Amino acid sequence: MITSGSWRTKSFKSYNFKALGVPPAAGHLHPLMKVRSEYRQIFLEMGFTEMPTNNFVESSFWNFDALFQPQQHPARDAHDTFFLKDPMYSHTFPMEYLQRVKRTHERGGYGSTGYQYSWKYEEAQKNLLRTHTTAVSARMLYQLGQQEEFTPVKWFSIDRVFRNETLDATHLAEFHQIEGVVADYNLTLGHLMGMLYEFFKKLGLT
């Protein structure tokens, strides 16, 4: 119409610059992120606080030793765990707590007889890609234990963990772990069952 000039004989309505156009195609949440968001919202509704889980690299001390997994456990083998070459070792630990963990591994305590072996500091120093977010919980519970006056807490985390798996259609070297921790006095198995029931009810599972 412009090249032929026929527009001169046509009637046009005024252009509405405020009219909404066709919505542009947009991205969507990945199915995994949708599930993660849903779970996170449920935890927040139940009064939990999210733990900081942004450190994928952990020391063997927090990943294994502080959780009282013996140093000769198969999970510490390179076939199951990704160990780092650089930096290979961690050097900063709460030494008083480390000595208590060492003593409990070797001789026990708190009603345990321990593992009855020689615990090695060099093994605890080894850096790795965390095999579970429980390493974060171990750090958080240690900090909670340093309080002069105990404060009850409800914590959760949802984040990536890494295992040296054989890759196939159903296995990757990383996956997500969901974790909740409640610390208070006079808790019972009934409290745990109630929380689990409430969590799954909010998911729509009865």
Automatic annotation (TrEMBL):
Its EC number is 6.1.1.20. PANTHER family: PHENYLALANINE--TRNA LIGASE ALPHA SUBUNIT, PHENYLALANYL-TRNA SYNTHETASE. Keywords: Aminoacyl-tRNA synthetase, ATP-binding, Ligase, Nucleotide-binding, Protein biosynthesis. This is phenylalanine--tRNA ligase. It is an enzyme of class 6 (ligase). The keyword Nucleotide-binding applies. It comes from the Eukaryota. Residues 34-206 form the Aminoacyl-transfer RNA synthetases class-II family profile domain. Coiled coil: none annotated. GO terms for cellular component: cytosol; phenylalanine-tRNA ligase complex. Gene3D superfamilies: Bira Bifunctional Protein, Domain 2. One of its GO terms (molecular function) is ATP binding. GO terms for biological process: phenylalanyl-tRNA aminoacylation. InterPro entries: aa-tRNA-synth_II (IPR006195), aa-tRNA-synth_II/BPL/LPL (IPR045864), Phenylalanyl-tRNA_Synthase (IPR002319).
